């Protein structure tokens, strides 16, 4: 029998996710919980927490009628749409284990995940995904037996999602809901696979809620805060921020199924918090920089002065110092008169917690946002640590360039070779192993080797150098951090992406990808004809697609710009400037300039926008080899 919903006086800290939902429906029945847009409506459709509880009860009954029960894995491959979010909660309430899969997964990855998690059912979005999954219905190595399709009229011979909600809720059914125990699996999150096959990370209710409490302790947010959910729900960051933390906080999730619509959603919602992986912050910064560069000189100087004041103000806070009264007054004036009007164009004027994780944040991007009064609080963690293990914090302190201090549910130490190790209440038990207990990589004392190289300073802040397996060892035996060199190169706005290469070679080379938006703005400022309409200036509020964030110009036009002598000279200066800040071993001796941006759709980036080095190495093997020819 399921536990009774918590009473108001003991509802502060329920031990499982279903009991959090029950608490939210009991204590905050009329607060908005979930909003989304549909094709046939202009505004948002919203469910309250009471309605979420009612809807997921009906949905759980529909899944139970298909034979889904406690402990069963169910695969979900959909965008950030209500069917995905609500199914996740409904399956959890049923005691089943929802497993979200990246929409960009290749057929071999889909086959591996289906066989590994032994799911009998998958819920997909449309006919395209049906074609990817249907062959597995006849796969003798997978128990997959049924497909459910979310989009109306695209199900073919398979079950329409709407049928799940037509099932009547049996008498007494609710008594069998919400019975999960704290140490039961809550989900399995598959790593995005920068190398090798994805691994299924088994996370329990206890681990997820420990991480949620720890993260809440280091942020400063108002109650029931809004969150724009746009990163894939197959990624641990969005599962925590867009699903589990909203249940913990009884907050309001805005689903954004189309990443290109995120800027419009941000402008409309004006969220108090915003999370983006570094590539997203980079692209937003590029757009704003281009817009600022086109302002009249007087306004541009006002922005530059306001940015100087903001950075000085943040520097005092970073050092833990009292901000002098005259600086505090100057900052408030600069913020009200210059920065807030600028940020409001993009809906970022109410931000109180901005965060990033998953890869090192370029220092110039951090400095740019600091100049707008936004401290991007870099954090660090893995899927295996249930997300955040360390975080900078407006409450507990921050160091720009670091990934902050360990949160309360994690300990961090450095091994003899510099590899960071983590243990604690939110560290997972192991990888999914069909037919047996999880395969644990933890040592006898519970420490997880993270694969990241870094250090912990005297104040407890953690600094990441690079991935252990990605470190370059030159033919002379010197170690080079590719991320360090790449971020130094990307400090020039024309260089949008970079890959550094040189393992077992005598010197380091690089592939540099031209930033389309910055290049077009740069060319326009210098009167270089690119074929773009000069009457169409870059606006700070122009949309940026976070998943594929460039609206590219004609490829031939961009290639011609990349070959222009003035631009080539500027790139040469950019590489020289980067080299001047690097030691001799790290310096880039040769490079190739590319114009096609890397992304998840073309395979060079993971769905969470991490660089797949192996893919880039293979795809550009000829170009890389040519950089070592005499």
Automatic annotation (TrEMBL):
Source superkingdom: Bacteria
Entry similarity comment: Belongs to the ATP-dependent AMP-binding enzyme family.
UniProt cross-references to Pfam families, sorted A to Z: AMP-binding, AMP-binding_C_3
PANTHER family noted in UniProt: AMP-DEPENDENT SYNTHETASE_LIGASE DOMAIN-CONTAINING PROTEIN, LONG-CHAIN-FATTY-ACID--COA LIGASE
Catalytic activity: a long-chain fatty acid + ATP + CoA = a long-chain fatty acyl-CoA + AMP + diphosphate
CDD domains: VL_LC_FACS_like
Protein name: Acyl-CoA synthetase
Keywords of this entry: Fatty acid metabolism, Ligase, Lipid metabolism
Ranges for region Disordered: 531-552
């Amino acid at each position: 029998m399921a536990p009774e919903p918590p009473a108001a006086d003991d509802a502060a800290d329920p031990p499982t996710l279903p009991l959090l939902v029950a608490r939210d429906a009991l204590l905050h029945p009329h607060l908005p919980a979930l909003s989304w847009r549909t094709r046939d409506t202009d505004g948002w459709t919203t469910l309250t927490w009471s309605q979420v509880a009612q809807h997921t009860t009906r949905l759980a009954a529909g899944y139970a009628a298909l034979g889904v029960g406690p402990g069963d894995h169910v695969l979900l491959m959909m965008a950030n749409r209500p069917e995905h979010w609500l199914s996740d909660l409904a399956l959890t309430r049923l005691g089943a284990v929802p497993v979200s899969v990246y929409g960009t997964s290749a057929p071999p990855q889909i086959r591996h995940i289906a066989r590994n998690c032994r799911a009998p059912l998958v819920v997909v979005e449309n006919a395209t995904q049906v074609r990817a999954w249907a062959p597995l219905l006849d796969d003798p190595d997978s128990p997959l037996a049924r497909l459910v399709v979310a989009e109306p009229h695209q199900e073919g011979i398979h079950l329409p999602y709407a049928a799940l909600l037509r099932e009547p809720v049996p008498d007494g059914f609710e008594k069998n809901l919400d019975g999960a125990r704290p140490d039961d699996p809550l989900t399995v999150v598959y790593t995005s696979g920068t190398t090798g096959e994805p691994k299924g990370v088994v996370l329990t209710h206890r681990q997820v809620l420990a991480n949620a409490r720890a993260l809440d302790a280091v942020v400063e947010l108002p109650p029931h805060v809004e969150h724009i959910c746009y990163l894939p729900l197959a990624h641990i960051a969005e599962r925590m921020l867009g699903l589990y933390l909203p249940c913990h906080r009884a907050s309001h999730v805005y689903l954004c199924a189309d990443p290109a619509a995120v800027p419009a959603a941000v402008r409309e919602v004006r969220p108090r918090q915003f999370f983006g992986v570094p590539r997203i912050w980079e692209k937003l910064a590029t757009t704003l920089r281009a817009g600022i560069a086109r302002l009249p000189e007087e306004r541009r100087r006002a922005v530059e002065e306001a940015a100087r004041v903001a950075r000085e103000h943040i520097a005092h806070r970073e050092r833990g110092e009292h901000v002098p009264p005259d600086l505090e007054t100057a900052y408030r004036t600069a913020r009200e008169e210059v920065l807030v009007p600028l940020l409001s164009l993009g809906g970022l004027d109410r931000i109180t917690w901005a965060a990033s994780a998953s890869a090192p944040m370029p220092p110039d991007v951090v400095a740019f946002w600091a100049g707008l009064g936004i401290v991007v609080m870099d954090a660090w963690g893995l899927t295996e640590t249930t997300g955040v293990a360390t975080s900078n914090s407006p409450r507990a302190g921050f160091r720009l360039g670091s990934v902050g201090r360990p949160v309360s549910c994690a300990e961090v130490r450095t091994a003899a070779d510099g590899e960071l190790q983590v243990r604690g209440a939110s560290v997972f038990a192991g990888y999914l192993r069909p037919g047996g207990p999880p395969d644990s990589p933890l040592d006898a004392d519970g420490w997880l080797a993270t694969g990241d190289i870094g250090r912990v300073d005297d104040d407890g802040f953690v600094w990441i150098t690079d991935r252990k397996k990605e470190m370059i060892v030159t033919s002379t035996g010197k170690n080079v951090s590719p991320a360090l060199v790449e971020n130094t190169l990307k400090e020039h706005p024309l260089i949008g992406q970079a890959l550094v290469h040189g393992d077992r070679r005598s010197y380091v080379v690089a592939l540099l990808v031209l930033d389309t938006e910055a290049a077009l703005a740069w060319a326009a400022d210098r009167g270089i004809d690119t074929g773009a309409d000069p009457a169409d200036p870059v606006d700070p509020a122009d949309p940026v697609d976070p998943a594929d964030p460039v609206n590219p110009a004609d490829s031939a036009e961009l290639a011609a710009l990349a070959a222009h002598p003035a631009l080539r000279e500027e790139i040469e200066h950019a590489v020289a400037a980067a080299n001047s800040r690097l030691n001799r071993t790290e310096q880039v001796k040769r490079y190739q300039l590319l114009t096609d941006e890397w992304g998840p759709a073309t395979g060079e980036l993971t769905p969470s926008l991490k660089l797949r080095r192996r893919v880039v190495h293979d795809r550009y093997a000829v170009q890389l080899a040519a950089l070592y020819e005499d």
